[in-house]
Amino acid sequence: MPGMTQSPLRLAGAVFIPSVLGFDRPSCGRIRGAVAFFPTEVFQLTLEVMFGLIHDLMQLSLGNPLLLIGAAFQLWMMVDALRREEWIWAACILFFSVFSAVFYYFMVYRAQGSASGGMGLKGFELPGAADRRRIKELESRIHHLDKARDHSDLGDVYFSGGKLAKAEACYRRALERDPEDDDTVSHLGQCLLRQGKAAEAKPLLEKVLTVDPRHDFGYTLMALAEAQTALGEVDAALLNWKRVLENNSYPRARVQYAELLASRGMVDQAQAEIDEVLADQNHSPAFEKNRNAVWIRRAKKLESRL
Question: Per-domain residue ranges for the chain?
Answer without folding.
Answer: 8-109
